[in-house]
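Why do we care about 3D structure at all? Because function follows from shape, and shape follows, mostly, from sequence. That is the central idea of this module. The next example makes it concrete: a single protein chain, its amino acid sequence, and then its structure expressed as tokens.
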Amino acid sequence: MVNILDFYEKMQDNNILFSFRGEINSDLVSSILQIMETNLDNAQEEIKTKKKVYYVLVECLQNLYHHIEEVPLEQTDHLRVRTAIFMIGKIDNAYHIMTGNYIKNENIGFLEKRLNEINSYTKEELKEKFKAVFENGEMSAKGGGGLGLIDIARKTNDKYDFAFNSIDDKYSFFGLRIKISK
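And the structure:
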């Protein structure tokens, strides 16, 4: 039998405050946000830090919910429809939000280019780009203009850490880590 206490202690040692793996739906997103709001309140963080972490949580979970790929169950044994990973941890006075989801290989180029572009912007360029996208009403195929990604970068003042791990000729697994310093 699995030693649950040992597993819990490993999560504690790695400062994991919350983790989830499974299918993402709107009820789950709401529940995770409620849990994390309570956890942040109990952590006695500064209001500014709480708001920033909560905002990034909302954006990340919305991105998972709205932009996750529908992967056929028969594709491979380990893929599941709308399956994603979400974790939040606290390491050295910074929160780390980590997400992972399946992505069609054909969509990697656009997303990778977009994230690298955002990573290359200065703080002022992020502000200008946010304003331009907002005013021009630019929209992606799934309805977003990338405002959330730009705004997260503005609020965190940190670069996106991301990777694409190939699963097969059709799908990869996209991992994203966002650091939120106090």
